[in-house]
Amino acid sequence: MSNNIDKINLIFSENPIARAYLYLFIKKKMINNDVFFLNHKTIFNKFFLRLQFNNNFKNTKKYLKNPDVQILIKEIEKFFNLEENFLINMYCFENIFKFKNLIYTKGPNINSNENLIFFSKLNNKHFLNSSNTIYKNIFNSNKKFYHIHPGYIYKVRGCDGALNSINNYNSLGASFFLMNNKIDSGDILKRYEQNYHKLTLPNFKKYSIYDLYNIWFSFFDPALRVSFLNKLLNENISLNNFEKINLNNEENNYFKFIDETNLYKIFLNKIFKDR
Q: Which CATH architecture has domain 5-273?
Protein backbone atom coordinates (compact mmCIF):
# COMPACT_ATOMS: atom_id res chain seq x y z
CA MET A 1 0.00 0.00 0.00
CA SER A 2 1.29 3.46 -0.93
CA ASN A 3 2.57 5.70 1.84
CA ASN A 4 1.99 8.86 -0.19
CA ILE A 5 -0.51 11.44 0.93
CA ASP A 6 -2.93 10.80 -1.95
CA LYS A 7 -3.88 7.50 -0.26
CA ILE A 8 -4.50 8.99 3.18
CA ASN A 9 -7.77 8.22 4.98
CA LEU A 10 -9.93 11.06 6.29
CA ILE A 11 -11.35 11.16 9.81
CA PHE A 12 -14.50 13.21 9.40
CA SER A 13 -16.60 15.08 11.93
CA GLU A 14 -19.14 17.76 11.09
CA ASN A 15 -17.09 20.97 11.12
CA PRO A 16 -15.69 23.49 8.58
CA ILE A 17 -12.22 21.91 8.37
CA ALA A 18 -13.64 18.47 7.60
CA ARG A 19 -16.03 19.92 5.02
CA ALA A 20 -13.12 21.68 3.29
CA TYR A 21 -10.97 18.53 3.19
CA LEU A 22 -13.90 16.45 2.00
CA TYR A 23 -14.62 18.80 -0.90
CA LEU A 24 -10.95 18.90 -1.87
CA PHE A 25 -10.90 15.09 -1.97
CA ILE A 26 -13.84 15.25 -4.37
CA LYS A 27 -12.12 17.82 -6.59
CA LYS A 28 -8.96 15.67 -6.59
CA LYS A 29 -11.00 12.60 -7.60
CA MET A 30 -10.08 10.88 -4.32
CA ILE A 31 -13.57 9.48 -3.70
CA ASN A 32 -12.13 5.96 -3.31
CA ASN A 33 -10.21 7.02 -0.21
CA ASP A 34 -11.78 5.78 3.01
CA VAL A 35 -13.70 8.38 5.00
CA PHE A 36 -14.27 7.52 8.65
CA PHE A 37 -17.25 9.42 10.01
CA LEU A 38 -17.01 9.91 13.78
CA ASN A 39 -20.62 8.97 14.32
CA HIS A 40 -22.88 5.99 14.87
CA LYS A 41 -24.90 4.83 11.90
CA THR A 42 -28.55 4.83 12.92
CA ILE A 43 -31.98 4.05 11.55
CA PHE A 44 -33.06 6.97 9.34
CA ASN A 45 -29.37 7.80 9.21
CA LYS A 46 -29.45 10.43 6.46
CA PHE A 47 -32.31 12.29 8.16
CA PHE A 48 -30.41 12.60 11.45
CA LEU A 49 -27.14 13.49 9.70
CA ARG A 50 -28.92 16.33 7.92
CA LEU A 51 -30.29 17.55 11.26
CA GLN A 52 -26.78 17.54 12.68
CA PHE A 53 -25.43 19.34 9.60
CA ASN A 54 -28.13 22.03 9.80
CA ASN A 55 -27.58 22.51 13.51
CA ASN A 56 -23.77 22.70 13.29
CA PHE A 57 -23.83 25.13 10.37
CA LYS A 58 -26.87 27.25 11.15
CA ASN A 59 -24.70 30.36 11.55
CA THR A 60 -22.55 29.49 8.56
CA LYS A 61 -25.62 29.18 6.34
CA LYS A 62 -26.67 32.63 7.51
CA TYR A 63 -23.24 34.05 6.64
CA LEU A 64 -23.32 32.46 3.19
CA LYS A 65 -26.36 34.61 2.36
CA ASN A 66 -24.75 37.80 3.66
CA PRO A 67 -23.52 40.15 0.85
CA ASP A 68 -20.66 41.43 3.04
CA VAL A 69 -19.43 37.94 3.78
CA GLN A 70 -19.78 36.94 0.13
CA ILE A 71 -17.24 39.67 -0.73
CA LEU A 72 -14.91 38.36 1.98
CA ILE A 73 -15.26 34.80 0.69
CA LYS A 74 -14.13 35.87 -2.78
CA GLU A 75 -11.10 37.64 -1.28
CA ILE A 76 -10.16 34.60 0.80
CA GLU A 77 -10.42 32.31 -2.23
CA LYS A 78 -8.20 34.66 -4.21
CA PHE A 79 -5.72 34.98 -1.33
CA PHE A 80 -5.28 31.20 -1.13
CA ASN A 81 -5.65 30.46 -4.87
CA LEU A 82 -8.78 28.39 -4.32
CA GLU A 83 -11.19 27.98 -7.20
CA GLU A 84 -14.19 30.28 -7.27
CA ASN A 85 -17.00 29.25 -4.91
CA PHE A 86 -14.88 26.56 -3.23
CA LEU A 87 -15.77 27.93 0.22
CA ILE A 88 -19.45 27.89 -0.72
CA ASN A 89 -19.65 24.51 -2.43
CA MET A 90 -17.83 22.76 0.39
CA TYR A 91 -20.92 23.33 2.55
CA CYS A 92 -23.10 21.08 0.40
CA PHE A 93 -24.58 18.44 2.70
CA GLU A 94 -24.58 15.77 -0.03
CA ASN A 95 -20.78 15.87 -0.53
CA ILE A 96 -20.28 13.22 2.14
CA PHE A 97 -22.30 10.68 0.16
CA LYS A 98 -20.12 10.93 -2.95
CA PHE A 99 -17.51 8.69 -1.34
CA LYS A 100 -17.53 5.00 -2.12
CA ASN A 101 -16.08 4.01 1.25
CA LEU A 102 -17.93 5.98 3.91
CA ILE A 103 -17.38 4.12 7.17
CA TYR A 104 -19.07 4.90 10.46
CA THR A 105 -17.07 4.57 13.66
CA LYS A 106 -18.17 3.74 17.20
CA GLY A 107 -19.36 7.22 18.05
CA PRO A 108 -18.11 10.82 18.02
CA ASN A 109 -15.42 10.45 20.72
CA ILE A 110 -12.19 9.51 18.97
CA ASN A 111 -10.61 8.64 22.33
CA SER A 112 -13.29 6.23 23.52
CA ASN A 113 -12.35 2.63 24.23
CA GLU A 114 -14.86 1.54 21.57
CA ASN A 115 -13.09 3.61 18.92
CA LEU A 116 -9.69 2.44 20.13
CA ILE A 117 -10.76 -1.16 19.49
CA PHE A 118 -12.39 -0.17 16.19
CA PHE A 119 -9.31 1.61 14.79
CA SER A 120 -6.91 -1.04 16.13
CA LYS A 121 -8.61 -3.67 13.97
CA LEU A 122 -8.40 -1.69 10.75
CA ASN A 123 -5.87 -2.46 8.03
CA ASN A 124 -5.60 1.27 7.30
CA LYS A 125 -2.45 2.89 8.69
CA HIS A 126 -2.54 6.63 7.87
CA PHE A 127 -5.32 9.03 8.92
CA LEU A 128 -5.82 12.76 8.42
CA ASN A 129 -7.42 14.47 11.41
CA SER A 130 -10.02 17.12 10.56
CA SER A 131 -10.89 18.53 13.97
CA ASN A 132 -9.25 20.35 16.87
CA THR A 133 -9.90 17.50 19.28
CA ILE A 134 -6.91 16.56 21.41
CA TYR A 135 -6.02 12.95 20.63
CA LYS A 136 -5.04 10.78 23.61
CA ASN A 137 -6.25 7.21 24.01
CA ILE A 138 -6.46 6.64 20.25
CA PHE A 139 -2.66 6.69 19.95
CA ASN A 140 -2.73 3.22 21.54
CA SER A 141 -4.22 1.91 18.28
CA ASN A 142 -0.71 2.03 16.74
CA LYS A 143 -2.04 3.98 13.75
CA LYS A 144 -0.52 7.17 12.39
CA PHE A 145 -2.57 10.35 12.69
CA TYR A 146 -1.67 13.53 10.82
CA HIS A 147 -2.81 17.09 11.34
CA ILE A 148 -2.56 20.46 9.59
CA HIS A 149 -2.00 23.17 12.16
CA PRO A 150 -2.76 26.79 11.09
CA GLY A 151 0.59 28.09 12.25
CA TYR A 152 4.31 27.69 11.57
CA ILE A 153 5.40 25.07 14.10
CA TYR A 154 7.25 25.43 16.40
CA LYS A 155 7.09 29.21 16.21
CA VAL A 156 3.30 29.25 16.58
CA ARG A 157 1.85 26.33 18.50
CA GLY A 158 -1.42 26.09 20.42
CA CYS A 159 -4.74 27.89 20.04
CA ASP A 160 -5.98 30.47 17.52
CA GLY A 161 -2.97 29.70 15.34
CA ALA A 162 -3.64 32.00 12.40
CA LEU A 163 -4.89 34.86 14.58
CA ASN A 164 -1.85 34.63 16.86
CA SER A 165 0.42 34.50 13.81
CA ILE A 166 -1.06 37.69 12.38
CA ASN A 167 -1.14 39.46 15.72
CA ASN A 168 2.46 38.65 16.67
CA TYR A 169 4.25 38.34 13.31
CA ASN A 170 1.93 39.80 10.65
CA SER A 171 2.29 36.49 8.87
CA LEU A 172 0.48 33.20 8.29
CA GLY A 173 1.73 29.68 8.35
CA ALA A 174 0.67 26.06 8.29
CA SER A 175 2.35 22.83 9.32
CA PHE A 176 1.61 19.22 8.38
CA PHE A 177 2.84 16.87 11.07
CA LEU A 178 2.54 13.43 12.61
CA MET A 179 0.55 13.76 15.83
CA ASN A 180 1.80 12.59 19.19
CA ASN A 181 0.62 13.03 22.79
CA LYS A 182 2.01 16.57 23.01
CA ILE A 183 0.15 19.49 21.44
CA ASP A 184 1.57 20.60 18.06
CA SER A 185 4.89 18.92 18.79
CA GLY A 186 5.01 15.95 16.42
CA ASP A 187 7.48 15.31 13.61
CA ILE A 188 6.95 17.74 10.75
CA LEU A 189 6.57 16.63 7.15
CA LYS A 190 6.05 20.08 5.62
CA ARG A 191 5.48 23.67 6.76
CA TYR A 192 5.28 27.09 5.17
CA GLU A 193 4.98 30.76 6.05
CA GLN A 194 3.73 33.81 4.13
CA ASN A 195 2.92 37.47 4.70
CA TYR A 196 -0.62 38.54 5.50
CA HIS A 197 -2.53 41.53 4.21
CA LYS A 198 -5.92 42.77 5.38
CA LEU A 199 -9.00 41.35 3.69
CA THR A 200 -12.18 43.23 2.85
CA LEU A 201 -15.24 42.63 4.98
CA PRO A 202 -17.58 45.56 4.29
CA ASN A 203 -19.15 47.07 7.40
CA PHE A 204 -17.08 44.77 9.60
CA LYS A 205 -17.28 47.15 12.55
CA LYS A 206 -21.01 46.49 12.85
CA TYR A 207 -20.49 42.78 13.52
CA SER A 208 -20.23 41.33 17.02
CA ILE A 209 -17.05 39.64 18.15
CA TYR A 210 -19.05 36.40 18.16
CA ASP A 211 -19.90 36.78 14.47
CA LEU A 212 -16.41 37.90 13.44
CA TYR A 213 -14.88 34.90 15.18
CA ASN A 214 -17.37 32.49 13.62
CA ILE A 215 -16.92 34.00 10.16
CA TRP A 216 -13.17 33.57 10.55
CA PHE A 217 -13.45 29.91 11.49
CA SER A 218 -16.15 29.18 8.91
CA PHE A 219 -14.10 30.45 5.97
CA PHE A 220 -10.59 31.73 6.58
CA ASP A 221 -9.30 28.99 8.86
CA PRO A 222 -10.48 26.08 6.67
CA ALA A 223 -9.22 27.93 3.56
CA LEU A 224 -5.73 28.21 5.06
CA ARG A 225 -5.63 24.53 5.92
CA VAL A 226 -7.20 23.17 2.73
CA SER A 227 -5.02 25.31 0.46
CA PHE A 228 -1.95 23.83 2.17
CA LEU A 229 -3.41 20.33 1.85
CA ASN A 230 -3.91 21.02 -1.85
CA LYS A 231 -0.20 21.86 -2.19
CA LEU A 232 0.75 18.67 -0.38
CA LEU A 233 -1.50 16.61 -2.67
CA ASN A 234 -0.13 18.32 -5.79
CA GLU A 235 3.36 17.30 -4.66
CA ASN A 236 2.01 13.92 -3.47
CA ILE A 237 4.49 13.94 -0.62
CA SER A 238 5.59 10.77 1.13
CA LEU A 239 4.26 10.24 4.64
CA ASN A 240 7.67 8.87 5.61
CA ASN A 241 9.83 11.91 4.80
CA PHE A 242 10.15 14.27 7.74
CA GLU A 243 11.94 17.58 7.90
CA LYS A 244 15.28 17.47 9.69
CA ILE A 245 14.91 20.14 12.34
CA ASN A 246 17.35 21.25 15.00
CA LEU A 247 15.05 22.32 17.84
CA ASN A 248 17.84 24.41 19.34
CA ASN A 249 17.58 26.70 16.32
CA GLU A 250 13.78 26.95 16.43
CA GLU A 251 11.68 29.68 17.97
CA ASN A 252 9.21 27.75 20.12
CA ASN A 253 6.04 29.42 21.42
CA TYR A 254 2.78 28.08 22.78
CA PHE A 255 -0.20 30.44 22.48
CA LYS A 256 -3.48 30.29 24.38
CA PHE A 257 -6.89 31.37 23.12
CA ILE A 258 -7.01 35.13 22.64
CA ASP A 259 -9.27 36.89 25.12
CA GLU A 260 -12.33 38.70 23.82
CA THR A 261 -10.98 42.25 24.29
CA ASN A 262 -7.76 41.61 22.40
CA LEU A 263 -9.59 39.52 19.81
CA TYR A 264 -11.79 42.47 18.87
CA LYS A 265 -8.74 44.76 18.60
CA ILE A 266 -7.03 42.28 16.30
CA PHE A 267 -10.04 42.03 14.00
CA LEU A 268 -10.37 45.82 13.92
CA ASN A 269 -6.72 46.71 13.47
CA LYS A 270 -5.00 43.78 11.77
CA ILE A 271 -7.47 41.41 10.06
CA PHE A 272 -10.20 43.23 8.16
CA LYS A 273 -10.62 46.42 6.20
CA ASP A 274 -13.71 48.12 4.83
CA ARG A 275 -14.13 48.85 1.15
A: 3-Layer(aba) Sandwich (3.40)
